[in-house]
User: Which sequence fits this backbone?
């Protein structure tokens, strides 16, 4: 017997449960209670399958076939030829001796980018986090200021900086105002490389600063008080207390930012388009251009390059998993 | 040698005054315990001595030198924290040696002093372990060891035993006391546990709301509490209080009566009271005699029989809760009516403002 309904809310609940009850009861009866979990997983599995797993599998077919046809049926099987083509070099240190010299230039660019961007960004993030963790005036304001760029879309970030750095941009206008000559910030190969690193640090360091700040705040205050009683100098406190206790967070930050740096694309593509020449072309942009932007579209080559990149990312991700798991056990 | 003098010490947090001008001298080699309910300022006072909290006004002197402006480490003190505050990434040996490394003590000397402290505190077997691999009691020993190796003038303890279980607390209490006997240093110890204060202290400082209520030896505080707060705080279970009014004042005592006209004689000096004054009398549970023919009628509400001793929780006709401690076991049952006798030399009398009248005869000392 149903009790009389005395509020609208009860009526609402009962209707809502009623709507679910019938299909749920039927489903349980049809497929059994043990397998019902699969029913809940199905929508996600479909989406993952369609947009993640299927493309991964298709990618292998493209990587092992040649020609410029998009339909797999029209593409001849070529085995490892795409990989061989990418990897054929007389001198691996000199991209000019490689069959796919732009690929190797992109690889070297990415290598330098990763080392410099991650190195400087982690250093700056640490410095910023240390300062923001102190009792400075306007602390809340500065914390949000440093985090704000993270909230911006990468394309917006790149457009802002392009507006500042282009030939007739804000920066050059400022230089000319004080009597200096303007500089080709984005069209000089060295400067362009400097600026893609600068801008990507600017855009992302807030995120890592936040993680490091959380790490710093997780260090108990009484440990610092004990160090004070123990007469430790500021440098000893930093090197013997703060850094060792922050190390687990530092490693997470390092691995996360490494993975992101290897995948860098959007800001750079909008800011310099990979130029001048291929001076700021990174590996992801090479894949995009080889597969989609150039004629003929070399899907096979692009797919092979993306598999090589995936291997690098896989290694980094496994490293990250190991590190974070190690920490969870500690 | 280390005499610690507190001269009108004040601590303000913005508009809030946490410590209201504390004057105190802690003699060389004394074991001084700050005790009081939470929020009374005892930890703040200790941290001001340590140098972890700035002194708003007043002067802190160690051996006659004002140390207000000295950094914590320069004051020659060592502190044991409630949470141990061990360095989690260092081994026990590194934890113990860190303070000595900071002042560039030679390696051999550090090793010698760490080994000696480890032997004294029986943590020699754990020197290569991290704090995480130790039990609470072992961590506490390491925290004490870290203070010992620095050979400080004064040891500061901030509720060091409150994170330990009851049994271990008793053991560590004894060990800290014996450490004090062996080293002979001045020690300042903060606790909210009056049993710790009574068992360890040479001198107890009772604090309430940032003010010293009384300073004295444990038995002084027990026998001659200066006011009702101290009387209630020292002693367990706490003293029974009953509101009365003075009916007669004589040179060797006063007579008080409850609302039902039952009167009691108290052997206290009658200074400052006159017949008709409202007072509060206090008697410790262990000084009440229950079951006798004469006395104050009560109803027994609950009984705790511990075998060796019994606690009877009663109420009198005026509704005052009265706790009686009786050694041994009792045949009285909950719900029984009984008589409680208040011996006149055991009655404390507190004036309206809470201050105690001087007791003229103290039974315990007889």
Assistant:
């Amino acid at each position: 017997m149903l009790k009389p309904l005395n509020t609208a809310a009860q009526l609402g609940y009962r209707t809502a449960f009623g709507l679910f009850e019938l299909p749920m009861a039927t489903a349980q009866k049809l497929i059994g209670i043990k397998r019902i979990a699969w029913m809940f997983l199905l929508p996600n599995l479909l989406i993952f399958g369609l947009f993640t797993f299927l493309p991964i599998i298709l990618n292998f077919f493209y990587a092992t076939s040649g020609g410029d046809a998009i339909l797999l049926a029209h593409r001849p099987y070529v085995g490892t030829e795409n990989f061989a083509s990418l990897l054929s070099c007389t001198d691996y240190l000199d991209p000019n001796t490689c069959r796919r010299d732009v690929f190797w230039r992109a690889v070297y660019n990415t290598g330098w980018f990763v080392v410099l961007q991650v190195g400087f960004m982690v250093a700056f993030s640490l410095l910023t986090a240390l300062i923001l963790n102190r009792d400075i005036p306007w602390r809340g304001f500065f914390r949000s200021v440093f985090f704000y760029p993270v909230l911006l879309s990468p394309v917006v970030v790149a457009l802002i900086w392009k507006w500042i750095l282009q030939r007739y941009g804000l920066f050059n206008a400022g230089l000319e105002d004080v009597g200096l000559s303007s500089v080709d910030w984005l069209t000089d190969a060295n400067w362009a490389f400097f600026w893609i690193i600068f801008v990507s640090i600017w855009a992302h360091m807030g995120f890592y600063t936040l993680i490091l700040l959380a790490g710093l705040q997780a260090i108990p205050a009484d440990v610092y008080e004990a160090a004070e009683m123990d007469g430790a100098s500021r440098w000893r406190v930093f090197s013997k207390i703060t850094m060792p206790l922050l190390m687990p967070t530092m490693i997470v930050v390092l691995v996360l930012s490494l993975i992101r740096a290897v995948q860098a694309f959007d800001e750079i593509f909008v800011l310099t388009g990979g130029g001048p020449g291929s001076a700021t072309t990174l590996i992801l942009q090479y894949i995009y251009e080889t597969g989609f932007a150039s004629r003929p579209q070399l899907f096979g080559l692009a797919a092979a390059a993306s598999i090589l990149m995936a291997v690098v990312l896989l290694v980094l991700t496994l490293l990250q998993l190991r590190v974070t798991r190690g920490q969870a056990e500690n | 040698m280390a005499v610690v003098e507190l001269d009108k010490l004040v601590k303000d947090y913005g508009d809030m005054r946490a410590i209201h001008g504390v004057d105190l001298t802690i003699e060389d080699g004394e074991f001084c315990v700050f005790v009081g309910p939470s929020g009374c300022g005892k930890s703040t006072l200790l941290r001001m001595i340590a140098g972890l909290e700035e002194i708003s006004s007043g002067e802190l002197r160690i051996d006659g030198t004002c140390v207000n402006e000295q950094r914590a480490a320069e004051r020659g003190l060592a502190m044991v924290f409630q949470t141990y505050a061990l360095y989690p990434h260092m081994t026990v040996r590194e934890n113990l040696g860190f303070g000595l490394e900071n002042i560039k003590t030679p390696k051999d000397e550090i090793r010698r002093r760490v080994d000696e402290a480890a032997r004294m505190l029986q943590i020699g077997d754990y020197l290569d372990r991290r704090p995480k691999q130790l039990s609470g009691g072992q961590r506490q020993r390491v925290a004490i060891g870290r203070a010992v190796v620095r050979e400080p003038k004064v040891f500061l303890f901030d509720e060091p035993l409150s994170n330990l279980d009851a049994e271990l607390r008793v053991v560590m209490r004894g060990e800290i006391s014996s450490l004090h006997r062996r080293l002979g240093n001045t020690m300042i110890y903060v606790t909210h546990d009056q049993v710790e204060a009574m068992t360890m202290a040479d001198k107890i400082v009772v604090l309430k709301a940032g003010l010293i209520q009384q300073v004295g030896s444990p038995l002084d505080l027990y026998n001659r509490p200066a006011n009702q707060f101290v009387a209630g705080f020292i002693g367990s279970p706490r003293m029974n209080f009953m509101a009365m009014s003075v009916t007669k004042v004589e040179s060797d005592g006063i007579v008080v009566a409850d609302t039902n006209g039952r009167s009691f004689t108290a052997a206290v000096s009658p200074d400052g009271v006159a017949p008709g004054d409202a007072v509060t009398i206090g008697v410790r549970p262990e000084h009440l005699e229950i079951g006798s023919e004469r006395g104050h009628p009560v109803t027994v509400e609950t009984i705790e029989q511990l075998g060796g001793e019994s606690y009877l929780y009663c109420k009198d006709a005026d509704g005052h809760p009265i706790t009686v401690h009786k050694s041994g076991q009792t045949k009285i049952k909950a719900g029984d009516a009984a008589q409680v006798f208040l011996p006149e030399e055991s009655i404390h009398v507190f004036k309206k403002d809470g201050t105690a009248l001087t007791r003229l005869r103290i039974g315990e000392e007889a």
